[in-house]
Amino acid sequence: MSTDLANQNEGDRSWSFQVNLSGVAAANSILAMEEGYYKVTVTDAYVKPEKPGRVVIKVKVLDGQSKGAVRTTGINLPNGETKDYARNLWRGLLESVGHAPNVLDNGELQLSSNAIVNRNAFIYYVPSPGEGSYDRVDFLPPAIWRERSESFIPGESHAPAAPAATRSEAAAPAITPASTPAAVAGTATRSSILSKLGAAPN
């Protein structure tokens, strides 16, 4: 009897285990994405109960070889501080999905998932360099995305993150002042954002 057959006969075939595979992608089914500039649709935005201070954002690539690829990123909720960089990130995301700068400049506004979900956006993407790190997803205003994507050379260098507060020419009058229930924005209180996203604040 060969060694391989002997080892096969000694194998334990009564193994069993429990595992939750809900929402887990099958191995090798995730579409590859290289560093670059992509047009995407924001497909979801939610707050996990265990991380109430951060909004998880999912995007799907609209065209090119990576069409259909889904990636996940997130932005922390603003903490109310003037120098809080999360406000810059929200500004960049809102301009990326088409909200007009002059509307965003109207003072305090209230942000909800309706402001971003099911809207097209523009991103600069860098895949994770390895275990323990995350993909980089930068939301860019359309004009900035267009300028940088046209001069981008794959593999030559990492492009800088876009200044999130940079103004763009895109216009979409879908944001209204915080006094309106359906409003969206980038300077809302933490509790008001969470309530709009269906999660309870701390």
Structure description:
The relative contact order is 0.20. This protein has one domain. Strand 1 (36-46) and strand 2 form a beta hairpin. The chain is globular and about 75 Å long. It is built from 5 helices and 5 strands. The chain has 202 residues and is an alpha+beta fold.
What distinguishing features does this structure have?
202 residues; alpha+beta; 5-stranded antiparallel sheet; 5 helices; globular
Question: How are the SSEs ordered, and which strands pair?
Answer:
Elements: H1 3-9, E1 36-46, E2 54-61, E3 70-76, H2 85-96, H3 101-104, E4 120-126, E5 136-139, H4 142-151, H5 190-196
Antiparallel strand pairs: 1-2, 1-4, 2-3, 4-5
- The N- to C-terminal Cα distance equals 66 Å
What profile does the largest beta sheet have? 5 strands, antiparallel
Query: Which descriptor suits the 3D outline?
Result: globular
Helix percentage range: 10-25%
State the secondary-structure class: alpha+beta
Average pLDDT taken over every residue: 79
Number of discrete domains:
1
Radius of gyration: 21 Å
Please provide the ordered H/E string of secondary-structure elements. Answer: HEEEHHEEHH
Strand content: 15-25%
**Order of the strands making up the biggest sheet:** 3-2-1-4-5
Can you give me a brief rundown of this structure?
The chain is of the alpha+beta class and 202 residues long. The protein contains five helices and five strands, in the order αβββααββαα. It has one domain.
